[in-house]
């Protein structure tokens, strides 16, 4: 034995911070012996109960029959996870996972993260047929997802059995089959020796949560759904099917018949991709101005190459709501109204019995421009006064927009008030649009707000501090993004809080980005540069495995995708040429869009102090080769200017329809 002087002593701070001192422990132990019922009755108060027990214990040793809290009811998953989030400890660390390989990242999982993952697994299990009382076998490596699977079973009320992930698939199968055989023989005397066929035909579905190491027996029909690839382990849920069921099942779980369904579209005005995903020059820890929203995105499907239909608010939103290109729906610039002849996403949902509601945050999406088509409730009352008129229309009380805190509060109220088990919502945020810094506030308050007019005035008077002012505007824009991040997190948490009872399908997308001096340009709407049209987009949906899609997609794909997630793609009356973004998209696909049009020749003032006449119209195509912009007369950037196919493409899909409209 080593000399006592060599022992490492426990720091006193560990004892000081302990919840129970040695003296407290001795006192508690003594009471548990002297007054067992009283001691354990006190421990009841430490848990949340559905029905609080009145009886502590029923003891019998002849025959042996011992019951604890037999008249009480609780859910252990709620006590292990949910109550900590509800009590304000959602950001506290619940699990620390250190992988076998020291080079791998240590995962620190908060109670809020744990709750989201457990709810997602439980919801998927229920979709696959797992019910209270079913037996679930969990065969996984020692990873946090294993704990989530057990908690998900407890949440449902299913009985789970854990098999160590180190066992071979063959030994696992024998274990599961033999255990089932004994139970089946006891409950089915004289049953057929064809055990596997009888199991499939007679037993309730019981799920197997399988890691990538599991090879399922080929002679048992299964149906499955991907849960994703968390922690490097491909997870798939398999449920033994009833004899009458189809074996095939889509990779993404769609809306389930009989369950409440909520479809939500969140559009974010002026959000740049790098503000969400992070800046290349920044380190990973501080890369994103919106880390909470980015964390949500990475729990779903991220569309890495999503292109806005335009770099202007109204044309893009009209495409997001109709699935049509701007030259098809006719809203090619701000100030134009969406014609009633065009079917909107909300109208399709309404035709299928959905209740519909929207909260928009700026006047360009006001009902006077036709964006309320198909909505039962449409909140377009704004709070911040700016101008009495805009694009030739009167602005009620001059109130032009509202900020995120107000929009989120209205959205939460509408979620609680709108009736019906099938719902479609559209929520729009304007916080990132100029003026920059009005949402972010901070120490500078309103004094730190920057308007584009102020920057343009500096350019015209050749102020040497203009570039510094542009950098300051970008910082205030990022301040606004940080505030908006908290509001989006607040809303998304609410959307998935009732995931056990409601299937929520969420798509978040930007309508365009913003220029802060790239190629001398400012703001948006005047060009089709990457920071303006290559925008963030992600989806969250039950059973939709986390991942990334790098095929080109665009605004016109959004309506078809949301309808598909709701199970309505086959009956849609939309005339869109868009594609379901959850399906198999070819990487060589092309996506089209256009810059806003101008009623008369337009000259853009840039940082070089010159006014540049803009060609009109201008279109873009994004494909595997990159992004090309131009029209029938010229290629502005991208493919070689002599590429006749691109010029012909712009001419066929843009120039002739444009001539006809004019």
pLDDT < 50 stretches:
191-255, 281-286, 640-644, 653-662
CATH homologous superfamily (4th level) name of the largest domain = Alkaline Phosphatase, subunit A
CATH class of the largest domain: Alpha Beta
Quaternary status: single chain
**Rg from Cα:** 30 Å
Total domains, how many? 2
Counting DSSP E segments of at least 2 residues, the number of strands comes to 31
Instruction: Calculate the terminal CA-CA distance, rounded to whole Å.
Output: 95 Å
Percent helix, as a range, is 25-40%
Structural class: alpha/beta
Kindly report the average pLDDT value. 80
- What spatial order of strands do you see in the largest sheet? 14-13-19-10-20-23-11-24
Work out the strand percent: 15-25%
User: How many alpha or pi helices?
Assistant: 19
Largest sheet properties: 8 strands, mixed
Shape: elongated
Give a short overview.
By secondary structure, this protein is α/β, with parallel strands linked by helices. 32% of the residues lie in helices and 19% in strands. The chain folds into two domains: 77-240, 3-Layer(aba) Sandwich (Rossmann fold); 260-661, Alkaline Phosphatase, subunit A.
Strands, helices and their partners?
Layout: H1 12-16, H2 22-34, H3 36-44, E1 57-58, E2 67-68, H4 76-89, E3 93-97, E4 107-110, H5 111-127, E5 135-140, H6 144-156, E6 159-164, H7 169-187, H8 195-202, E7 207-210, E8 222-228, E9 235-240, E10 260-268, H9 273-277, H10 291-297, E11 301-303, E12 306-307, H11 313-322, H12 326-329, H13 345-351, E13 355-359, E14 377-379, E15 384-385, E16 389-390, E17 393-394, E18 399-401, H14 404-417, E19 422-429, H15 452-460, H16 466-495, E20 502-510, E21 515-516, E22 522-523, H17 530-533, E23 537-540, E24 547-549, E25 553-554, H18 557-565, E26 591-594, E27 603-605, E28 611-613, E29 619-623, E30 626-630, E31 635-637, H19 644-661
Parallel strand pairs: 5-6, 5-7, 10-19, 10-20, 11-24, 12-25, 13-14, 13-19
Antiparallel strand pairs: 1-2, 3-4, 7-9, 8-9, 11-23, 15-18, 16-17, 20-23, 21-22, 26-29, 27-28, 29-30, 30-31
Helix pairs in contact: 2-3, 4-5, 4-6, 5-6, 10-16, 14-16
